[in-house]
């Protein structure tokens, strides 16, 4: 199962995807231009399609 780390910043999203051995298999830096909801959905859809991910499990930290 992949691990997905996401950082939501003032103007960007950054994400990283790790495999079962905690090796990076993908990452990206995206501008959300203040439209966080739409950009977040688009980012998850892109990850789902590109990495064939069918489920996401989330944990939030402050």
Describe the biggest sheet? 3 strands, antiparallel
- Give the helix tally: 1
Task: Give the N-to-C terminal Cα separation.
Answer: 24 Å
Helix content: 25-40%
Backbone CA Rg? 12 Å
Q: Show unreliable segments.
A: none
3D structure, described in words:
By secondary structure, this protein is of the alpha+beta class. It has one domain (3-51). 26% of the residues lie in helices and 34% in strands. A hairpin with a 3-residue loop joins strand 1 and strand 2. The mean pLDDT is 86.
Could you outline the blueprint of secondary structure elements for this entry?
Blueprint: E1 3-8, E2 12-18, E3 24-31, H1 36-51
Antiparallel strand pairs: 1-2, 2-3
Summarize the structure.
The protein is an alpha+beta fold and 62 residues long. The chain has one helix at 36-51; strands at 3-8, 12-18, 24-31.
List keywords for this structure.
62 residues; 1 helix; 26% helix; alpha+beta; 34% strand
């Amino acid at each position: 199962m992949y691990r997905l780390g996401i950082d939501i910043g003032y103007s960007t999203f950054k994400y990283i995807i790790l495999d079962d051995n905690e090796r990076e298999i993908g990452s990206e830096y995206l501008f959300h231009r203040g439209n966080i909801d739409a950009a977040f959905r688009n980012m998850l859809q892109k990850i789902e399609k590109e990495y064939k991910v069918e489920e996401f499990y989330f944990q939030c930290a402050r």
